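**User:** Here is a favour to ask of a fellow structure person. Please take any protein you like and set down a full record of it. No explanation is needed for now; the record alone will do.

**Assistant:**
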Amino acid sequence: MKRNNEFIWFKEWLCEGYTVSQLSRISKKSERKIRLIIDYWLSHSPRLSYDNLARRKYLVFDGSFIWKRKTSAVILLDAETNKLVYGLYDFKENSFRALLDLFQRLKMAGVSPRSCTVDGLPAVIRALAYVWPDIIIQRCLFHIQRQGLKWCRSYPKTTEAKKLRLLFLSMMNISTLEERDNFLLSVKEWEGNYGCRIKDRPERGRVFSDLKRARSMLLNALPNAFHYLHDAKIAKTTNLAEGYFSFMKTRYRDHRGLSSLKRKAFFNWFFYL
């Protein structure tokens, strides 16, 4: 009972970013006592619950570097409730085998999604389709747009790059099937006028190579870019995950300097709470 009563201070430290000295003043406990409370809970893993996982039908999956671009975390969110379904620290998002193992464990725990919105990593898409063959995979429009604009440059000099940039700029504004059809016609027109010639040109400069990458990415993404128009519950971006990661990293920076073991425990508790 005493430990449970003290847990509130650990939760305030982890989720709200209070410092040890601030909690000491609020709780009327010594700073040493607060540190002992924090260390106690960091040394105990939370009991994960997988209740109602079968009801999570519309998901968002994303990963992000957490510590020095060496260690990353992945999260699975419910697009309907905006709540975390599952989080895992120290995970290689671009490893097909690791993703396959993760998704198979989630499937065994009851996860059976109708759709999943992803940033576009091939390994993620392959693993999702392998574990759930009937899943609808929605590509994140924001990631497509952001990467496409980066490759086209802010002020492109060639006509083909300028027109391709306009296509990327319009993607996030597509909200009806008619707008989608008009967009696809524009892409087809651009491809007929410029795309085939770009593909066959032997140039190898960085700017031209990036233009070829932008074209290839757009064409490959189109089959999975507009599923959200047929089902409003499907998220068209992974912005929900981006927001979660932003908040989590802010809280972690409040307590940077943790040892590797405590760092892992910190994220396990953050995902749990």
